[in-house]
Design brief:
The chain is built from four helices and two strands. It has 132 residues and is mostly helical.
C-alpha cells in the first residue's frame, strides 16, 4: 500500500492526478479512495486535464461513503457511544497534524489543524464504515 500527503495549500485533485501519472507507468493499476462521489468524478476530470486529453485507463476510483450525497437508512438505529469522545479525538488529531512539516500538509496554526482534524476524523469514520 502506498500513502501520500498533499499540502493543504495546493489543489488536491490536480496534484493527485499529476503525481499519480508521474509515478505509475500503468495508471490503471491501483485504487484511489476519496471521501465522496463528487470528488471521485472530479478526479476523473483532473486525470483528463493532467493527461492533456490523451486516452488512458484510469485507476479504480472509489468513494468511501458519500454521506453528504446519500442519507443513511439506519441513521441513529444503533445507540452505541463513540469509541473516543469527539473533543479529545479531534485534539489528538490536531496535535498530530501540527507535528507534520508544513510542506507535507501540516498546519501552521491551531485553527488550520483543527479544521484538518475534523475532515480527517470524517474520513477515518467513513473508512471504518466501509470496513477498509
Amino acid at each position: 500500500m502506498n500513502l501520500a500527503s498533499i499540502p493543504a495549500n495546493v489543489p488536491f485533485l490536480e496534484s493527485l492526478a499529476t503525481a499519480w501519472l508521474a509515478a505509475h507507468a500503468d495508471p490503471s493499476r491501483g485504487l484511489i479512495l476519496l471521501p465522496t462521489r463528487r470528488a471521485a468524478r472530479s478526479l476523473a476530470d483532473a486525470f483528463l486535464r493532467a493527461g492533456n486529453g490523451r486516452p488512458m485507463l484510469l485507476p479504480r476510483i472509489t468513494a468511501l461513503g458519500a454521506l453528504d450525497e446519500t442519507p443513511l437508512a439506519l441513521a441513529g438505529a444503533l445507540a452505541l457511544p463513540p469509541a473516543v469522545a469527539a473533543a479529545p479525538r479531534l485534539a489528538g488529531l490536531a496535535k498530530l497534524i501540527l507535528r507534520m512539516p508544513s510542506d507535507l500538509g501540516g498546519a501552521t496554526t491551531i485553527d488550520q489543524a483543527w479544521r484538518l482534524a475534523v475532515e480527517l476524523a470524517k474520513l477515518m469514520d467513513e473508512a471504518d464504515r466501509a470496513e477498509l
